[in-house]
Amino acid sequence: MYLSELIQAYYEYRPHASKENEVLVNCPFCADNGHSPDTEFKLGVNTQKELGHCHRCDWRAGGRNLYSHLAEEANVHECYETDTEEHTLEKPKKTEFTLKRVTLPKEFEPLWQGDLDSLGRRALKYLTDRGITEGQLRRHKIGFCGTGKYGYRILLPITFKGICVSFTARSFVNAEPKYLISDGEKFLYGWPTKRRKTRCLLVEGPFDVLNVEHYTKDFDVLGKQGSVLTDLQV
Q1: Which of left, alpha, beta for 128 (phi over 0: left; psi -120 to 50: alpha)?
Q2: How far apart are CA 187 and CA 182, in angstroms?
Q3: In 140-205, which ranges are continuous DSSP H helix?
Q4: pTM of the shown model
Q5: 3-73 has CATH 3.90.580.10 classification
Q6: What does each C-alpha distance from 210 to 28, 140, 179, 190, 203 come to in angstroms?
Q7: pLDDT tens digits for 15-74?
């Protein structure tokens, strides 16, 4: 097995932005060298020269030694191969999907604006009792429905470039089922982020996102939409 084949089959990688034949891998050796596990793709590997160097823990190796260490970490027992041909990695395939607009129910009312009726105030109290702030209501465009299919439910939309692509509806009167999700694709609540951070926390659902947001500025916080993690969410 070639080094390039080993990485493509067993490691998550990214092509280097400017260096040809070089890819970036989450370094599996950082933890052994006194660092926390690498989640920022700090191990650079030149698949043509067969040289690897981590810019975080300074681990480095080349040739057969580089292959052997990576194969051992991946629990691979294929023999090392090399030749004079150039073996480059394909770019990782991205999940393809088409964003479809989801229309909020006509009964939807925003909770970040004033003039709420008694049912709106009840929905707002439910949220404030769970620690949700006025700023979060506005930032996440949170509202409610008083009647209709989603009556007596908090609506938590997911928007992209101003377009609603999905929403979760949570009962605030203990009705069953507690959660309803709009038809179509299921996304991660909190997605898309502004990509200001290099790491994220994946939590169970939308309300966990809203609560964890209060306590971390170092991570983007994303929550499952639904009971299982779909391929698109991954």
Answers
A1: alpha
A2: 11
A3: none
A4: 0.59
A5: yes
A6: 32, 9, 16, 9, 10
A7: 888 888 899 999 999 988 888 888 889 999 998 889 999 999 999 999 899 999 999 888
